[in-house]
Amino acid sequence: MAWVLKMDEVIESGLVHDFDASLSGIGQELGAGAYSMSDVLALPIFKQEDSSLPLDGETKHPPFQYVMCAATSPAVKLHDETLTYLNQGQSYEIRMLDNRKMGDMPEISGKLVKSIIRVVFHDRRLQYTEHQQLEGWKWNRPGDRLLDLDIPMSVGIIDTRTNPSQLNAVEFLWDPAKRTSAFIQVHCISTEFTPRKHGGEKGVPFRIQVDTFKQNENGEYTDHLHSASCQIKVFKPKGADRKQKTDREKMEKRTAHEKEKYQPSYDTTILTECSPWPDAPTAYVNNSPSTVPTFTSPQQSTCSVPDSNSSSPNHQGDGVSQASGEQLQPSATIQETQQWLLKNRFSSYTRLFSNFSGADLLKLTKEDLVQICGAADGIRLYNSLKSRSVRPRLTIYVCQEQLSPPQQAAGSGGENGSGTPCVYHAIYLEEMVASEVARKLALVFKIPLHQINQVYRQGPTGIHILVSDQVVQNFQDESCFLFYTVKAENGGGIHIILK
Question: What confidence tier does 106 reach under pLDDT thresholds 50, 70, 90?
Answer without folding.
Answer: confident
